[in-house]
Amino acid sequence: MELLFYYGLFLAKTVTVVVAIAIVVMLIANLAMRKRSQTGRLKLTDLSESYKEMKDEMMLAHMKHHDRKQWHKEQKKRDKAVAKAAKLQAKQGVKTESSTPTLYVMDFKGSMDAHEVNSLREEISAVLAVAREQDEVLLRLESPGGVVHGYGLAASQLQRLRQKGIRLTVAVDKVAASGGYMMACVADRIVAAPFSIIGSIGVVAQIPNFNRLLKRNEIDVELHTAGEYKRTLTLFGENTEQGREKFREDLNETHQLFKQFVHQMRPVLDMDQVATGEHWFGSQALEKKLIDAIGTSDDLIIDRISSHKVINVRYLQRKKVIDRFTQSAASSAERLLLKLWQRGDKPLL
Predict the structure, then answer these.
(1) How far apart, in whole angstroms, are the C-alpha atoms of residue 343 and residue 312?
(2) Alpha-carbon distance 294 to 173, whole Å?
(3) Which residues, 6+ apart, have CB-to-CB distance to 210 below 8 Å?
(4) Which of 132, 183, 187, 250 is 20 to 30 A (C-alpha) from 297?
């Protein structure tokens, strides 16, 4: 009896050690997998196939029951024939590369800080890795603009396509203003919806100043800098006319660089006429040559489906739970700002 007791105790200890080791191994493996997928993953969607399925469903909805059965029977025969031919070619070791050109569709819905450029750079790198001379890229762009360096980088990413000779079309269904237009002007062709917002080739900055409020409450703020223009305007200190002048000078220099870039990408533009900071609806933008045609991204995709294989390319960033909540709040704030901006400048319909 005592022997059984010690044997059971030994067995329990052994099982405990084995389970503990297994848990540690699983935790290490899980952490390794999380690190590998921390940056994100590429998601490809065949829009040609999705459109074909939708078209077939609509067509079948108009058929009688007998005709639908007959159509499905014939479709199965066609699918079997295609699969059989592909299997035979695979057995014979025949590698066939499709001569059909590909239209790669990307989406960029820009925020103020243009953090979406991280996904854009991955998508462009993926396309450039396999793109052929006859392939094209369609970017569905929506952005009211934001920080200069963020949208400058986004425009530079699109220039990579241009430098490799890959034709780029930008479709604007809603808005491409300021930094958004900086991105759009890189394209070989810009197509915009009639009431989309285009332009706003200008630079804006505003800084609140609490100096008088602090003085009334006898609160001192000290700011020490090395360099005459390390700080021009401040939130809490007393701003000087010299600082304001330097700040305006910096804005004008940024505006000049913006105008030079747009003119380099679209030399047909009359920069004195369009670089006033104003924005226009799509139909007005066409008259000013800010865009090349009126239309929607849907029309562009459907027109290409008959001649191209259309693939949507998306790079999905891995997000922490806290990031999902904060990004949702930030998106809501940006939508509110955009609504206020539109309400102040243009009538809402």
Answers:
(1) 34
(2) 10
(3) 235, 236
(4) 132
| pLDDT, tens digit, 9 for 90 and up, residues 133-158 | 999 999 999 999 999 999 999 999 99
Tell me the three state secondary structure of residue 280: strand
Task: Verify that 284 and 227 share a domain, yes or no.
Answer: no
pLDDT band at 223 (very low <50, low <70, confident <90, very high): confident
Work out the number of other CB atoms within 10 angstroms of the CB of residue 270: 10
Q: Is residue 61 in some structural domain?
A: no
What are the helix and strand counts (H, E) for the chain? 12, 9
Is residue 186 domain-shared with residue 260, that is, in the same domain? no
Out of 33-37, 52-56, 164-168, 248-252, pick the least confident.
33-37
**Mean of pLDDT over the chain:** 84
Taking 80 as the threshold, does the pLDDT of residue 273 lie above it?
Answer: yes
The answer to whether residues 265 and 186 touch, using CB atoms and an 8 Å cutoff, is yes
CA proximity to 313, closest of 175, 100, 108, 54: 108
Residue of 178, 196, 200, 297 marked active site: 178
Total count of domains within the chain: 2
238 in the same domain as 260: yes
Structural contact between residues 261 and 155, judged by C-beta atoms closer than 8 angstroms: yes
Active site residue 178: yes
Rounded to whole angstroms, the Cα distance separating 276 from 263 reads 14
Has 77 been annotated as catalytic?
no
Tokens standing for residue 136: 């094209």
Do the domain assignments include residue 141?
A: yes
Given the residues 64, 73, 95, 230, select the one marked as catalytic. 230
Residue 75, pLDDT score: 80
Choose the weakest-confidence range: 81-95, 262-276, 320-334: 320-334
Domain extent, residue 234, equals: 202-266
- pTM over 0.85, yes/no: no
Q: Are residues 242 and 116 in the same domain?
A: no
